[in-house]
């Protein structure tokens, strides 16, 4: 066991592919991104054929594990009949009906390809519906890489002047953003009180801050935002690109009992294929018939929609979300025990099957949580388990208690080798 083949492959990749990774955030995987030859269930195998327990799960989509046979069957049936047609087809409505049947209060949807795209489409709907243009988001929340929302990624980046999150962004792109603080009811109330004067079209919120530490909304926080959005004519958008079809069949609306006007789904909606959707109120989404342009060559591609339909069937099976919660809880208990016994200054946070490694003395970061977590991920990948650089941990229905025990035993050994507080 060792990741020499990935080190060699990464060196070669860097000579043809900018940065050596296909998505910038993967560059912080330590010591190099793992190169995968095949994947099944809870495991990936590297170029040498070594097996790893996978907690990356493709950065979120694989709620039912890699290569789930139900999803593969559905896709295989369609792929030999058509690939992309640019016209109407049966799966457009069958998959849409399956999604609408899953999400409480959902009346209509439009298909998009990625989460980034779907967020932009949702914002366009909000602007068209309200005639206003500004958007409230929360410090540290990630809503895709588009300039208009990729800003203010540090906990203290609140206020009117959004902070660009990377190079190459237009200084004008964030002019519409107002940044609030998650779980700060007073702050959002103050902002929304002046919604009309401040031209606020939408509140964009990831209800569990999936990329910013993983946190449940405080009691009453989402309810208050819902009331204030109603009162001040603001569209409430849940970004459920990670949470959707992971924390509950019906997403945050089901789990927290608060209905947004629009939800953005991606990742798990298609069980590993490229698909996303904006889902919500018919009167807002029907604006596509009234001058709002929603276009895209690959929108509604039949292969991905076959996967959506199959993924919806899997998530409708009784007991799926209870199982995900139980496995998440088992992981939390087993790994917390190991961290505590080793005296590691860190714990875990969890919402269902999504967990976050949380150092006591340091903020987590979307771009890679340094210090002890970086040491752990490097040690674990050398030992046979692969984790994300940010410290997010995805558990799937394919993981077993035996996988979790194996991971805990590996972590125990890794923590004996790494200093609990690396310099
Ligand atoms: C909450 C959230 N919104 C939006 C996105 C963007 O989705 P995509 O990477 O499919 O463009 C992500 C991706 O991680 C996400 O976690």
Automatic annotation (TrEMBL):
- Keywords per UniProt: Pyridoxal phosphate
Q: Which GO terms describe its molecular function?
A: pyridoxal phosphate binding; transaminase activity
Q: Which family does it belong to?
A: Belongs to the class-III pyridoxal-phosphate-dependent aminotransferase family.
Q: Which InterPro entries match?
A: Aminotrans_3, Aminotrans_3_PPA_site, PyrdxlP-dep_Trfase, PyrdxlP-dep_Trfase_major, PyrdxlP-dep_Trfase_small
Per the UniProt entry, what species is this protein from, by scientific name? Nocardia neocaledoniensis
Question: Which PROSITE patterns does this chain map to?
Answer: AA_TRANSFER_CLASS_3
Pfam families listed in its UniProt record: Aminotran_3
Q: Does the keyword Nucleus apply?
A: no
- Top-level taxon of origin: Bacteria
Q: Which SUPFAM superfamilies match?
A: PLP-dependent transferases
Tell me the protein's name: Glutamate-1-semialdehyde 2,1-aminomutase
Necessary cofactors: pyridoxal 5'-phosphate
């Amino acid at each position: 066991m060792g990741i020499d083949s990935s080190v060699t492959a990464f060196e070669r990749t860097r000579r043809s592919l900018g940065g050596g990774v296909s998505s910038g955030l993967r560059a912080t995987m330590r010591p190099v991104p793992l190169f995968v030859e095949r994947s099944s269930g809870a495991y990936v195998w590297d170029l040498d054929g070594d097996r790893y327990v996978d907690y990356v799960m493709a950065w979120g989509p694989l709620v039912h594990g890699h290569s789930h046979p139900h999803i593969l069957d559905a896709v295989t049936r369609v792929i030999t009949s058509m690939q992309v047609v640019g016209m109407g087809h049966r799966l457009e409505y069958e998959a849409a009906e399956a999604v609408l049947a899953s999400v409480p209060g959902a009346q209509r949807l439009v298909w998009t390809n990625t989460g980034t795209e779907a967020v932009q489409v949702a914002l366009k709907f909000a602007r068209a519906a309200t005639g206003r243009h500004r958007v409230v988001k929360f410090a540290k929340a990630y809503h895709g890489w588009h300039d208009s929302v990729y800003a203010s990624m540090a906990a203290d980046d609140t206020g009117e002047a959004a902070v660009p999150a990377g190079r190459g962004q237009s200084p004008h792109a964030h002019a519409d953003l107002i940044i609030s603080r998650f779980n700060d009811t007073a702050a959002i109330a103050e902002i929304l009180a002046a919604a009309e004067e401040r031209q606020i079209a939408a509140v964009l919120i990831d209800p569990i801050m999936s990329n910013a530490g993983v946190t449940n909304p405080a009691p009453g926080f989402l309810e208050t935002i819902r009331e204030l959005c109603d009162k001040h004519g603001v569209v409430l958008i849940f970004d459920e690109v990670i949470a959707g079809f992971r924390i509950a069949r019906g997403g945050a609306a089901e789990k927290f009992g608060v209905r947004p006007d629009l939800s953005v789904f991606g990742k798990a909606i298609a069980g590993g294929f490229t698909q996303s959707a904006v889902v919500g109120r018919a009167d807002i989404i029907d604006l596509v018939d009234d001058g709002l342009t929603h276009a895209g060559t690959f929108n509604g591609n039949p292969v991905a929609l076959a996967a959506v339909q199959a993924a919806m069937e899997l998530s409708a099976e009784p007991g799926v979300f209870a199982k995900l919660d139980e496995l998440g809880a088992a992981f939390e208990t087993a790994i917390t025990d190991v961290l505590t016994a080793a005296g590691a200054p860190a714990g875990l946070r969890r919402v269902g099957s999504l967990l976050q490694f949380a150092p006591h003395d340091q903020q987590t970061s979307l771009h890679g949580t340094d210090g002890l977590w970086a040491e752990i991920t490097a040690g674990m990948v050398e030992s046979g388990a692969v984790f994300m650089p940010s410290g997010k941990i995805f558990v799937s229905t394919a993981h077993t208690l035996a996988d979790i025990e194996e991971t805990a035993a590996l972590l125990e050994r890794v923590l004996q080798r790494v200093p609990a507080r690396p310099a």
